[in-house]
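Explain this fold:

***
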Amino acid sequence: MAGLTEPHLQTELPGPRARELIEADARVTSPSLPRAYGLVPARGAGAMVEDVDGNVLLDFNAGIAVCSTGHSHPKVVEAITEQAARLLHYSGTDFFLPLYAETCERLKRIAPWPGITPGGST
């Protein structure tokens, strides 16, 4: 995947392996979970995503609007690895996590929001 800069189709979309996996999924998952597209991703790098049939597509999803760094960005992978080695998940709504307050303080410095004070009051 690394170094790919443009889409390349190997098969029709969805391809034969993707169709096989979509059919297997439909046999065991709830129909209450609709899928928007017949994409079965295998891996990604930057703005490109490769499906299980080897089709390379330009990925416009941006992590479904939560992460626009692209796939497998080395600095993001490094940060995730470092954090996962310390503490993988704890709810910031249940406990006081220093990392949460530190992140909020950093955001306050780089993107101030006039009228907003600590604790969320205006």
Q: What stands out?
A: The longest helix spans residues 16-28.
